[in-house]
Structure formats: structure tokens, C-alpha cells
Amino acid sequence: MSMFRKASALLGGGDAGDAKKHHEDGESLTTVLETDEDRSTLTLLICDVTELMRKGLVDTFNPKEIGTEEDRLAALSLDDNELTNSEKPKDDEKSKETQKLLEKQQAEVAKLEKEVSVEKMVMLKTSALDFFDDWRDTVILRVGEVVNSSREKTGQQAEQAKPNPTHPEDQVSLEGIEGTEANEQVDEVTEALLKLYPPIETPLRKMAKEKRVLILHSVFLLLLSLEHYNAHSRTLLLCLTTSLGLSAIVLSEDEKKVAQGLLTAAEKMSAEEETKKRAEKNRTSRRIKMGVAGVAGAALIGITGGLAAPLLATGIGTVLGGIGLGATATAGYLGALAGSGVLVGGLFGAYGAKMTSKAMEQYTRDVEDFAFMPINKLGENDIEARRLRVAIGISGWLGDKDEVEKPWNCIGPNIESFALRFEVEALMNLGNALTSLVTSAAWSIAKSQIIKRTVFAALTAGLWPLALVKASRLIDNPWSVANQRAQKAGEVLADALINKAQGERPVTLIGYSLGAKVIYVCLQQLAERKAFGLIENAIMLGAPTPSSSADWRCIRAVVTGRVVNAYSTNDYILAFLYRSSSVQLGVAGLHPVLSVKGVENVDVSDLVKGHTLYRHATAPILKRIGFEDLDLEDIKIQEMKLEEQERREEEMRREAEEGTKGKGLDKEGETLVSDEEARGMELDGQQESGQESEQRGEQMGKLA
């Protein structure tokens, strides 16, 4: 650490005597940081933040960092629930049980040490740290280059755009929306971010708020000048935001304004004229043709690399000058990005076209149905919809085709959001089968028996109620097919992200049920291919995946920000679907993921009484975890739909139970569901799945 402090002290030097001249050209980092000490302090803060980030990465592979006390106690609670009433320990024995669990965790340290020492894990750790160190070096050098400069280059005449106090729309909001319902959400997000990215003590926090905002904005532009905005850069800015005592909304608003400014300035440049001019000067100049199918107003076709005309550099500074910096400083901090339409296009993935156009076809060779569906709440203006971050929501089963996108309408407008559509037919079949199962009399009565059994301790077909086993043919095949398709979709998604379909922007992945499986497979693939810096957050709800520490350690290594595992101990459907697997190794959607530092386990049992409710619980769960980008109105809508869905399923189960009255019960209290009735349930599910009447007739023939 001392090495970085010495280096940063050198980089932070400089002459403040030219501050007045800088001020004449508009605000800049060297005018905000008026003394050498201030400049050194900023560089030291960035060194401290990156060192803390590096420690978090190292801790991922530290066997002694085995998660939180809350997670271990949650695991004990699960074990306690698995016991029958006669087996449950008395109150005076619970402390002994707790002690046994803690001793067991300590005993597992040796096992974990062996786990992290295998060649595959060592190589992953080495690659992750090498990538991070290279990124950190470029950041520190870039920041030092600017704060160490006693004067800024002003080789071009440009109009200066200074903040005008009479135009509040040009100012970044500092505290969010006061006096509205947004306050509560802002507070929850702030609390979550402070916990995830604890502030580092710095004298810069004593500066006026306006100056702290300009510092954050300047560092943001310097990070963009690296010609990418990867997940590490975004995490650095979040840590800087909390350390400077600013709200996360300041950063979000800044990202939005910069995104629109970059694209607006780039659009003003005539692609055709620039290409001709470059071709005349140098026939061997690099030419890049970028696909922009489906993008309104894009003007990037055939733009060559390098700096563009001075007009663009002037324009970018003027457009972004409203943030507070002078135009010259703004263009200077952005570097080549301020004058190259190609670099701007690459940053956004050709204005987002790669996410939606035919360019995606090259990634879909193994999956017949695979596409990114934009969730655009801002109208048809392409530039207005662009952001410097991307969120991808992935549904795990569908009640109708609209549910590819509906659960993700809760994602707010400060992030560019997409819904991943994959294998809709398979997910529709699964959705109808799930609905038929959970609203059946067999499930309703069997569930009461499940609760009394040691379900989570050793799930095997022999332990499940006979009525449910007979009805399993309704769900097993649709689940198996959809599960295999999710595996393929995860591999395709990883390939698309590695090939920068999203551009050079950090991605947040959110999915429920098999959508979470897609994310799980994608992240495993990214780890296998040593693809770092792509994923900012991964949020998995009701994941039908293993919870083994080795798998989640790999996931943690390729996600820079948050890894969230939301689970429900009431999800008996997931347990039933997983019954043929080795559940002793754990299912992430049923209990916490243990022994991996940095994985957030969130118990949502009170929200999710069953697997079918996840599609209406996405917004409430994201609100609970303090997700940064939420649409407050959609949260209310989803909360009402969640309650409505619970009531509807309960009513359907009650009706089904009424229809079974008078039927005999076996000695274990299970309904005597005949094979014919089980086949009838299967047939109903197939009919609801929209299969052809000829197929239904064939099933009826078999039933006869």
C-alpha cells in the first residue's frame, strides 16, 4: 500500500499558480483542487478505493472468509425446520445445536483450503487479479496525468459552457427528489450502498458539495477516456460517491447526461464527409463499418478511427459543460473519445443496435429463439433511451408471451434495460404445467404432508407423497426441456457479452427461476473463459442451481459489484423439481450460499410462498435489497399482482379440494389419485400449453 501512496503523491503534485488561468477557461479538476495537497489527496483516495476493491477480490478466494454469521444461523434454522416435531430440540438444546453448526463451519475451513488450491481455482484467481491490476494501473496513471498537469492544453478555440445558476435543469440533483415517495427508495438505496461500499475517510469530504460533485464528474470522464466503462470503473465511482458523501442519484444523473451528450455530439458529425476527408488524406487509414440496423438517426456507418474534426471536440465540451466543467476541460478529460464517432459507437455497442439487430444471429446457433427485447419507457428517441449501463432481465417461465418483458418493467429509466427472450414455447409449456400442478388437489393435500417430512435433508422420490409422484408426469418433461434450453441460453448469453454485444458498458443481470439458471450458466462460462469486467451485478431469484461454494466462488470472481441469491424456504415446488438431483449439495433457491465472501443471501420466504410467485415478486425483492434502479410506480403494481396471484392460486386449490371430497385416503393421509387422474392432469396441462388438437386426441386415445 505504501508503494501506491508514494506513487500517488508524486502523481498528485503540480503547480497551483495557474489556477486563475484555468478558471478563465472554465472549471476544471485543477481549479477545484486548488493545492498540491488536495490533488495528492484525490489520488490517494483512488488508490485506497482500488486497494479495497482488490482486497474484496482476494477475499473471494480466502477459505477463512466463509460468509456472514446470519447466513450460518439461517442454515441452522433450515436444519431445524427439517426435523419432525418430535425430533426438534428443546430451547435449552438449541444453543448446543448452534455451537455444533459453528464447529462444523470451522472444520470445513480445511476443506475450503483444498478447494481454492486446485489448479483451476488458482488460475482463475491469478487471471482475475492480473486483469484488475492492469485496469488499476491505467486508472491511476490517467488520474495522475491530469492532476499533475499545471496547465491544460487549449490548442483549439472553443466556447466555454459554465454552470448557470439561473438554469437549474443544467445542474445535477444532489439529494434526489425531496418531498416525494422517492425519498424512501433513495434512503434504502443509500443504506444498501453504504453497506456494500463503505466510505473511506478523506479530507475532500469537507469541501463544498458543488466541488465534490465536480470531482466525481471529472473522475468519471477520465475513466471514460480509457475508451471503455467496465464494471470495475463503475464500482470505483460508487465507492468514490459514498466516500465523498454524495447520493447515488448524483452518479446516475451524471451517467445519463454524459451518455446523451456523447451521442448528441457524435450524431452532429457527418459520417460521409468525414470518411471522404480521411480517405483523401490517407488511403490506408483504418476503416470501421459498424452495423446500425434498427437504430433511428444513427450516423456511424463507415466512420474512420482517430480524432474527428475540431467541431466535434468543441461540441462535446459544450454539450457536457452544463455539468459544471468548462468545455475545454471536458473535452480534454475525455481524450480521444471526445473526437471519435467510432469510439463513441463502440462504447454503446453501435448505439445499442447489436443488442437488437440481426447482428445477434451469430450468437444463436445453439438456441432457436434468442433475442434482446428493449424495455424503452422514453419513447422512440434513440438517444434519449441510451445509457452508460445495461440491465438484462430474464424470465424463467411464462404464463403468456408478454411476461418476457412484464416482470422487468420495474427497472428504472437510469439504466438501459432489455428483456432476454429465449425459447418462449418451452417456457410457456413449463408455465402452464406449473400452474396446473400448484392449483391441483394433489398438490394442495400433498403439500401438507411435505411440511411434516424431512424434505430438505434428503429429497428422493420415495419420500414424496404418492399422489404427487403420480402427478409428476405433468411437470417433469416440460421442466427437463426448459432446463436444457436455459443451459444453452446461458452459454449463448456469455458469448454475446464477451463479443461486446452490449458495447463497453457494465451489465446487470437479473433473473428468476430458469432465468436465474441462465445467469448462473453465463457467469460460469465467463469464469471459464476468463472474461472479467463485464458484469456489474448478478441477482438470482429462486435459482434452480447448486449452491456449492466452488461454483459460486467462480461467479463472485467475474462479478465486480453485487452477487445476490434470493431464496425461499417455502418453495416446495422447486424442491420437488429438484428431487432427482443430489440435493444434499444444496439448491441456491432454497437456502443460503455459504462459505463465499461477497455473496448476499436474502430470505424472501415471506414474499414468495411458492415458485410460481416469483414472476410477480421481482420488484418487491429488488426493493428489499436496495436495488439502485427501480420504477416506483411499477413496484406498487407488482405488489398488488403478487397478492392477487396468491389469492387466485389459493382459490383454485380450494376448488380442486372441494372436487375431491368423498374420495378415500390411504393410511398416510394421501389422496388416492389414480393413474387415470394423473394422466388427466397431464392432458389438461398440454391443452393449456396450446398443443394441437390432434395431439390431444392422441393422448385421449392412450388414456382410453
Written description of the protein model:
- By secondary structure, the chain is mostly helical.
- Among the domains are: 165 residues, no CATH class; 321 residues, 3-Layer(aba) Sandwich (Rossmann fold), CATH 3.40.50.
- Helix content is 53%, strand content 6%.
- The radius of gyration is 28 Å and the shape is globular.
Strand content: 5-15%
Helical residues, percent: 40-55%
Query: Which architecture of one domain would the CATH scheme give at its second level?
Result: 3-Layer(aba) Sandwich
Distance from first to last alpha carbon: 77 Å
Gyration radius, in Å? 28 Å
Number of strand segments = 7
CATH-defined topology of one domain: Rossmann fold
State the secondary-structure class: mainly alpha
Summarize, please:
The protein is mostly helical.
Question: What attributes characterize this protein structure?
Answer:
disordered C terminus, Rossmann fold, 704 residues, mainly alpha, 7-stranded mixed beta sheet
Write the layout of secondary structure elements.
Blueprint: H1 2-11, H2 19-24, H3 29-32, H4 36-60, H5 69-82, H6 91-116, H7 119-147, H8 182-196, H9 209-224, H10 231-243, H11 248-267, H12 271-281, H13 310-320, H14 327-334, H15 341-347, E1 370-374, H16 382-385, E2 390-394, E3 416-422, H17 424-438, H18 441-451, H19 466-471, H20 473-498, E4 507-512, H21 514-528, E5 535-541, H22 549-558, E6 563-567, H23 572-577, E7 599-603, H24 614-624, H25 632-659, H26 675-688, H27 693-703
Helix pairs in contact: 1-4, 4-7, 4-10, 7-22, 9-10, 9-11, 11-13, 13-14, 17-20, 17-26, 18-25, 20-21, 21-22, 24-25, 26-27
